[in-house]
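Much of our argument rests on the idea that a fold can be written as discrete symbols. In the encoding step, the backbone of a single protein was reduced to a row of integers, each denoting a local shape. We regard such an encoding as a compact summary of how the chain folds. The record that follows shows the chain in one-letter code together with its fold in token form:
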Amino acid sequence: MRLLKLLQIYEVDGITPKHRSERFNFDEIQGHTFREMNPTEVGCPMILSGVHQYIPFKTTRVQAIDLDGMDFRVLTRNTIYHFEVYTERQAT
């Protein structure tokens, strides 16, 4: 599964940073690296786990995915998650 560094969380307008919801403070997880627990697919929730510290993270159903080079964006019902895809380099 991919390693993903959470760069920013946005409101669905794609411009306004999202800092907290009724149940969750998004600022606490911004900048952390997560590992996908299952492949992220449209129609299913995105399920992640923190790499250095166990931080389980599950979203509502994914509505769209945008992968552009190292940028990985996931749209759910009311949030856009912007990640950077980490690649593990192999020694040559």
User: Anything to note?
Assistant: The radius of gyration is 13 Å.
